[in-house]
Design brief:
The chain contains eight helices and five strands. It is an alpha+beta fold and about 290 residues long. Helix 7 (about 260-275) links the parallel strand 4 and strand 5 (about 285). The two termini are about 45 Å apart.
């Protein structure tokens, strides 16, 4: 603002991360702490009741021994009965308190669980497209890589980017640009299945993880996505808001033994930029691009 400059995508991402994403995480942590507090309180009450029940059992055993050894004289019998009554009343009070605690917190626990699930979902979901966000995708790809698979090329990663998206935003406005992103997200959701994962990686870039999918299968999926976007037509609220044909560029990387999430994504990204430098609206396999460069 001081420099009278416009925000670019990187600036917006930084603002989001600092003021929105971090708050989502703080909300989740607060709800988790509150849920733990309620559960701890219920546990303490249950442990107290269990301890009292154990003590009451010991008292019953002592009274039984006393009755056996005393020959049931009237004074002993009267004392034991009074102590049993007092012990039973104490147990009844303790159980009533436990029931009250559980009943009082049951609704609170359910409410906290629902709020926690919602907060976690929001923290891992891109609000514009409804896809996984970058944070969720980082978790997913790490879980897939750390899953113990040792065969090279058993997973494929697609990184895709909207061609000339800045021009679309500048020409038709950000509202129309958002509509483009939602439309592409819809295409991606229709092309993934099973264990496949799709995410908005940031700005106009998307990621598609295809576990246990080799190069041929990944290329087929990538071409299906590219063709579906190219054939689609996105219209705005007026004839002036008609960008015509929207296209995307795609890069594919195949998993290599020893890959980290970062190296896997980096190779897919390089393939994506090769698609862009070669004219856009195309699919490039990282391994092919590397062999050509060599």
């Amino acid at each position: 603002i001081d420099e009278k400059q416009l925000l670019d995508d990187d600036d917006v991402q930084k603002v989001f991360q600092r003021f929105i994403a971090d708050r989502d995480e703080a909300t989740t942590e607060k709800l988790q702490a509150e849920l733990r507090r309620v559960m701890d309180e219920m546990m303490r009450q249950a442990q107290s009741t269990a301890k009292q029940a154990e003590q009451y059992g010991d008292e019953l055993a002592e009274h039984t021994d006393a009755l056996k050894s005393s020959g049931f004289d009237e004074a002993t019998l009267s004392r034991v009965i009074d102590e049993l009554i007092n012990g039973a009343q104490g147990m009844r009070h303790s159980v009533t308190e436990l029931q009250s605690t559980v009943a009082g917190h049951s609704e609170e626990v359910e409410s906290l669980k629902e709020a926690l699930q919602q907060a976690i979902g929001e923290a891992l979901t891109d609000p514009l497209t409804g896809l996984n966000n970058r944070r969720a995708f980082d978790r997913i790809i790490s879980e897939v890589i750390d899953g113990g698979t040792t065969l090279a090329h058993s997973h494929s990663l697609l990184m895709l980017d909207v061609d000339h998206f800045k021009k679309v935003n500048d020409t038709y406005g950000h509202v129309f640009g958002d509509k483009v992103l939602r439309s592409i997200a819809h295409v991606l959701q229709g092309k993934v299945k099973g264990a496949d994962s799709v995410a908005r990686f940031g700005g106009e870039e998307f990621a598609v993880l295809l576990p246990k999918t080799a190069a041929k299968g990944a290329q087929v999926v990538a071409e299906q996505i590219r063709e579906a976007v190219e054939k689609g037509r996105i219209r705005g609220t007026s004839k002036a808001e008609d960008a015509g044909k929207i296209t995307i560029s795609i890069g594919i990387a195949l998993y290599r033994v020893g890959d980290t999430a970062e190296s896997f994504i980096e190779r897919a990204d390089k393939a994506l930029y090769k698609s862009k430098s070669d004219g856009r609206n195309r699919v490039t396999l990282a391994e092919m691009a590397e062999s050509q460069a060599a």
